[in-house]
Amino acid sequence: MSAGSAIDGVRRVQVPGGTLAYEVLDASGPASADAPTVLAVHGVSSQRRLWLWLADALAGTAPGVSLLAPDLRGRGDSVAVPGPFSMDVHADDLVRVLDDAGLDRVHVVGMSMGGFVAVHLAARYPERVESLVLVDGGIPMDPPPGLTRANVATAFADRVGRLERRFSGVEEYAAYFCSSTAPLLRPDDPVLLRYLAHDLTPEGTVRLSGQALVEDAADVFFADHPWDAVRAPVRFLHAEWSVGAGSPPAYPLPVVEQRAARCVRVVAARQTDHAGTIMGPEGARLVADLVREAVA
What we know:
With 296 residues, the chain is of the alpha/beta class.
């Protein structure tokens, strides 16, 4: 284990530019000596508490499995770590997290942009990745019509809008979040409130770097993708909608069908949008089933 530090269960490990924060979320239930730890990688505007729902779901399907959950640079407790930002930079950071945690080889679950980081990790460091569970991300996708590197910020206006506001508390922030980013979620969901509380400073601002958001989103859509270099088994879950009921999915069915042969399992999350694939009990249960299958 490398020379990291821990305060109140949160470890910090040195990476270029600063220290990255991570914690271990344990699924409740009896642990076994060989129960694995799964590296869990959040999305572009998210942070490590995204995995609270999955930890709860794993308690019922794979008790004893732990989630190693970092705040990527530019987010949460790692918000002060500067760029450059890219999928490869995040992958390099995650190797330092694994070294600090004393883990040589892990299963990896990644949601949205976290899926792309997971793919880059598996391509750059194949000896460190046992398998991939990709949640509505990670598989190459075409940019939405009209999206360019120059106007990426406009495509993420709801996320950028968070950075321009000061919220009176987590309840006001939840109302904003559910009105823009995740309209199918309940703003009074206690797990959602715990998740969103990790976003906020005591002053009510959101701990998210605008530079990280824009540069990482551009990297997802416009950088070279190492999908064909990945040798680890891949399990993929995709949502029926993107943002809200009836919206076009991030992965249209022809794209899913094209990539399905590369995956050992593909699962469709019906009546669910992008956020709901992990930020709710039904989506988290589907992901937990794939994680349980991967580690079995």
